[in-house]
């Protein structure tokens, strides 16, 4: 199976080449040319018994093998074994908890307490093998722009991985205190972290412009360096996420929560559209997902798009208590549109040009005919805080502010439509990762900093604090540097 660019201007490449490259040379995103099918009558077959016996590993291995055909079974097994180990605080890796009438797929049991660990703990293993497969002998430098959670998960995944350097840029005033601490205290000889004076878009644009700077790429190549990405534009980050939808559907059947072959809905708190696209890929594999619910906060570009077919970023950017969803340009939507258009790269290029120049595009008939399997909704901040508090007060189940957005959107949807299909809600972060907003939602009163809120929530709820967030305020700061966005290129030069 080959990978092609969504913008039609680059040749087909192997999975290994797509993973090493990150972004396609025409600035499109790599997508699988054809979508594999594992389940159902015309499926290729999937060993469900193996998932019952070997748990998450087996779901991950079988899913990855379906997409990454140039990797052998034993290679994929090595990757999964290295990634999903005791870094996770439960052998289930991604457990499902029933609460509030729904099923919460807890994706935050890894070392950084957010769902980015699910993919970023395996990406370094995949990348290392991929580099070897394509006989790339240059040093791989991973450039990452982050609004908070990706940065730490990428640092944790790539720290001290031989043959790599990892460089992370974050908006110095645009991440939570916990997120910032997690990044600037990261140990590892190949680790570089820079705050940017600016917002996430500045960091993202700076990094993207380096990817499209041919001169700079040549200069780096002369020094035996090649750039790659750990953002969800990298297909190596997206495919591992498909596995947890496969795994949890099987788990629900094994637990007797759903009948054999019963359809479910999936609801995802969405930012860059990566996680929900992974659910759509799972559906294409044959997992019977009836509806995909795309949940947004006040930055509801996607809600409007799914309802009208017009994607319009010309609006106010709102800072919310679910900052990882504060995003106006959801990169991975480009992949979905490519698939829905039947692989029409020219059409995608037109839309993306319009987005660049006009700040908007109209997907026309593409949206009307094909997006009906999606439902989109948005939840205002105070409503989702109230639902978070209610779930704790009534059922003693604590969720974070991003998950609360999804939970609220799902409740509204079920009420509006009367669709009571059993629903899996992606729970994307530990409540302790956004402790200030969670504490305020619970009515716990003000504290002077995030770390005090962690302690306060622990005292009030007794819910254990993830090990990665313990004693964070006592770890030494190793990367205090803050730079202007015009200095991003220099920072890369200094780091490699
Ligand atoms: C990254 C992130 C999201 C958004 O996921 P996308 O794949 O970008 O849509 C939601 N919640 C949390 C906690 C995140 O870290």
Descriptive notes:
It is a single chain. This protein is of the alpha/beta class and 496 residues long. It has a domain at 96-113 and 237-464: Rossmann fold (3-Layer(aba) Sandwich). The protein contains 21 helices and 15 strands. The chain has helices at residues 15-21, 48-54, 56-67, 73-83, 116-120, 123-133, 149-158, 177-184, 200-211, 214-222, 235-254, 274-285, 301-308, 333-340, 345-358, 365-370, 381-395, 401-417, 435-441, 450-461, 488-495; strands at 3-5, 30-32, 96-99, 102-106, 139-145, 164-171, 191-197, 225-229, 264-269, 289-296, 310-312, 360-362, 374-378, 423-427, 482-484. A six-stranded mixed sheet has the order 3-4-14-9-10-13, sandwiched between helices. Helix 8 (177-184) links the parallel strand 6 and strand 7 (191-197). The protein starts with a strand and ends with a helix. The model has no long low-confidence stretch (mean pLDDT 94). The structure holds pyridoxal-5'-phosphate. Pyridoxal-5'-phosphate is lined by residues 114-116, 149, 232, 269-275, 324-325, 402, 428-429.
